[in-house]
């Protein structure tokens, strides 16, 4: 019986025939799928972020109806449009019928076609 120190892996490999990739059958290729229509139907959550504030737990515990918490946005500044939490542009609030809406001011490279390439 050989000890692990006497084992000659290189010698064993030298005696084996080399693998020749030219004799292997090529893998079949599937035609590329057009995913644009499918991806465009996936629902996402669009939000308009007014601003944020960091407060202590003590301040949070003292909040009552009527309390005012100052946000990090200036009044009248464009608001952030977010898709699933990722900022994609700026907008302002408008009234659309009986609901609030948003008017897009700027978009940051929103290219849905890039998702399929």
TrEMBL record:
Ranges where the Flagellar motor switch protein FliN-like C-terminal domain occurs: 39-105
Top-level lineage group: Bacteria
Keywords for the protein's UniProt record, in alphabetical order: Cell membrane, Cell projection, Chemotaxis, Cilium, Flagellar rotation, Flagellum, Membrane
Pfam family, one: FliMN_C
Composition bias type Acidic residues, residue spans: 1-11
Chain residue ranges for the region called Disordered: 1-32
Residues that span the membrane, as ranges: none
Matches recorded under InterPro entries: FliN, FliN-like_C, FliN/MopA/SpaO, FliN_T3SS_HrcQb, SpoA-like_sf
Compartments (UniProt record): Cell membrane
Membrane topology: Peripheral membrane protein
Similarity comment: Belongs to the FliN/MopA/SpaO family.
Cited NCBIfam families: fliN
Protein name (record): Flagellar motor switch protein FliN
High-level lineage: Bacteria, Pseudomonadati, Pseudomonadota, Betaproteobacteria, Neisseriales
Gene encoding the protein: fliN
């Amino acid at each position: 019986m050989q000890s692990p120190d006497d084992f000659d892996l290189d010698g064993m490999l030298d005696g084996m025939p080399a693998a020749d990739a030219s004799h292997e059958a090529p893998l079949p290729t599937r035609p590329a799928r057009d995913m644009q229509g499918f991806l465009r139907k996936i629902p996402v959550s669009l939000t308009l972020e007014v601003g944020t504030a960091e407060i202590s737990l003590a301040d949070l515990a003292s909040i009552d109806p009527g309390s005012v918490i100052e946000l990090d946005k200036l009044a009248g500044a464009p608001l952030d449009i977010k898709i699933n939490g990722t900022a994609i542009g700026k907008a302002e609030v408008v009234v659309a019928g009986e609901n609030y809406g948003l008017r897009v001011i700027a978009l940051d490279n929103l290219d849905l076609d890039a998702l399929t390439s």
